[in-house]
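step=encode ok
step=design start
structure_in=
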């Protein structure tokens, strides 16, 4: 994938991996549009990256996706790259959790339904471009779950599967389908949890992770697994029970408390 002169939509681009993708892609001469739910966060991103376009839009809401699509078709008909990055991750203890049934599955709406719906809406526009790409940001946890975050991991495993199918369905088009499966990366999302759950995990800086992603895009490496994400995929095949046990320690602590 050519990494300059594209027009790129990044969902969830006001912080973390999405923001760093926007920063590095702007520096390489791309037009970048970022979305997010929080206007203040978007405004702050714009202060740091004055060349980006910010649009308030929730990837988990169908109405927002429709409005975003109309705005992009009108203002950026040349859009040729969609990066489905927006995502949330929550620890959920099924013994004690008191969320409503609607809230319980919110990660599915944002992390899985969001990319599927955005792909469906933007595909005609992407297919009309001479070069185009869809990037789905999954996780190393797509390959083996971290049981303290059961719904998050289920969405990432499903997004991995969806991306594989989509790549096959689009093989005769100009739209390249990438999966970026980050390892633990130093962003606000990672900092939400219990620090003891990260014991022994090597955490990548967001700059290094996105730099690795850029190299992968340039080489048309369609499943990019920086750092420990690669080990997680390898271990999920070589020693699946061992690696699941390793990732289950936080649940063991939860059950003991
Ligand atoms: N950090 C890691 O260790 C790691 C590892 C593997 C995979 N990932 C994946 O990488 C992606 C980015 O994660 P991150 O670590 O950068 O997270 P982050 O630091 O929490 O940033 C996520 C961004 O997405 C936005 N966002 C969240 N929900 C949204 C929604 N419904 N619609 C639009 N924007 C939304 C947030 O802004 P608002 O709150 O303002 O909407 C925020 O700007 C996620 O898909 C995550 O699962 C992260």
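sequence_out=
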């Amino acid at each position: 994938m050519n990494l300059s002169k594209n027009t790129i939509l990044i969902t969830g681009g006001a912080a973390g991996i999405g923001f760093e993708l926007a920063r590095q892609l702007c520096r390489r001469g791309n037009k970048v549009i970022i979305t997010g739910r929080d206007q203040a966060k978007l405004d702050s991103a714009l202060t740091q990256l004055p060349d980006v376009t910010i649009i308030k839009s929730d990837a988990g809401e169908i109405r927002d996706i429709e409005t975003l699509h109309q705005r992009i078709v009108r203002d950026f008909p040349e859009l040729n790259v969609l990066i489905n990055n927006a995502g949330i991750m929550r620890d959920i203890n099924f013994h004690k959790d008191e969320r409503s049934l609607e809230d319980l599955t919110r990660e599915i709406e944002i992390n899985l339904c969001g990319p599927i719906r955005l792909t469906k809406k933007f595909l005609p526009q992407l297919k009309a471009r001479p070069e185009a790409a869809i990037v789905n940001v999954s996780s190393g946890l797509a390959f083996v779950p971290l049981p303290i975050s059961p719904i998050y991991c289920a969405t990432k495993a499903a997004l991995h599967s969806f991306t594989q199918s989509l790549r096959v369905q689009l093989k005769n088009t100009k739209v390249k389908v990438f999966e970026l499966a980050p390892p633990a990366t130093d962003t606000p999302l990672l900092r939400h949890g219990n620090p003891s759950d990260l014991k022994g995990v090597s955490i990548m800086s967001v700059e290094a992770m996105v730099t690795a992603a850029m190299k992968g895009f340039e080489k048309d490496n369609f499943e990019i697994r920086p750092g420990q994400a690669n080990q997680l995929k390898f271990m999920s095949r070589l020693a699946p029970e061992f690696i699941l046990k390793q990732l289950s320690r936080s649940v063991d602590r939860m059950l003991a408390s």
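step=design ok
step=annotate ok -> The longest helix spans residues 106-127.
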